[in-house]
Amino acid sequence: MATPMTPERFQDRWEAFKGEPQQVSGIWGLYRSIAELEGSGDILDEHASWALKFSEKPAALPPPARGNPLALPFFDQTNDGPEGWRHCQSSSIAMNLAFLQVPGIRDDLDYLRVVERYGDTTSQAAHAKALAELNAPGRFSTNCTVERAKAEIDKGYGLAIGILHKGPVSAPSGGGHYIAVRGYDSNGWLVHDPYGDLDLIRGTWAKEGGGAGKGLHYSFKNTNPRWLPEGAASGWAWLFS
User: Fold this and answer.
1) d(CA 193, CA 214)
2) Could you read off the pLDDT of 74-112 as tens digits, one per residue?
3) Crossing angle of helices 88-99/108-115, nearest 10°?
4) pLDDT on residue 165
5) Which of these, 55, 190, 228, 238, has the minimum number of CB atoms within 10 Å of its CB?
6) Residue 15 CB contacts under 8 Å (≥ 6 apart), including other chains
């Protein structure tokens, strides 16, 4: 029985193309199969709509507006439905994309719909594919530092960082939680926390939802041990410069 290929699986094959002999052979085989179809001339025309769309150059994004803090919008993940409690990474990235005026991203649900075409909201691979589809900046780092994060802010770019949000600050734990960093001062990070207001000392929520995570100050003293648990260059972060 034939197994229909979804558009996502079809795209996966194009993204895996590296010019290897078997891949080239497959492309030529696909061409011959199309050429044998009735009306194939319209598909294989150099000016076919798909060919023109494929060759378009993405519009350049406007330069980011600098500031400290940056004017990132706030998106509350708890408004995303019954699975919203899992959407911290999507919401934190979406805040940065909306700030950068990425076309089509007005809120975190706009972005989440793209992510879910490629996998789960907790998957960095799914986010990488979503960002590629959107022609949006964004790369995942596992060795970000305080200095690098500050430099990003100084250039006009926010970050989405992953912290261990459970347990006491002396021994943080948990599967991880993402927050959007929009600035810093002499004592800490200026953030939007999509879930709420985190008690950084105890690792519990002081307030949840309802916009409680908007415009918070998270101290270096109690945030950095949760963000950099394996040393000064161990920070998980999405960078957008």
Assistant:
1) 6
2) 999 999 999 999 999 999 999 999 999 999 999 999 999
3) 120
4) 98
5) 55
6) 129, 132
Burial of 168 (0-12, 13-18, 19+ CB in 10 A): middle
Dist. CA 159–CA 224, nearest whole Å: 14
Checking if the pLDDT of 8 tops 70, the result is no
- Number of CB atoms found within 10 A of residue 86's CB: 14
Name the residue ranges covered by the structural domains of the chain: 20-54, 77-239
Residues 20 and 23: their CA atoms lie apart, in Å, by 5
Q: What is the identity of the amino acid at 229?
A: P
* CA-closest candidate to residue 152, choices 179, 124, 183: 183
Task: Tokens for 168, please give them.
Answer: 């006491």
pLDDT at 141 exceeding the cut of 90: yes
Contact 213, 195 (CB under 8 A): yes
Cα separation of the two ends of the chain: 47
Confirm if 226 and 237 have CB atoms less than 8 A apart. no
Cα–Cα distance for residue pair 239/141, rounded to 1 Å: 7
Helices (H) and strands (E) in the chain, counts: 9, 8
Structure pTM?
0.79
Helix, strand, or coil here: 77? helix
What phi and psi values does residue 111 have, to the nearest 5 degrees? -70, -40
Of 65-69, 91-95, 148-152, give the lowest mean pLDDT range.
65-69
Let me know: does 176 contact 162? Beta carbons within 8 Å: yes
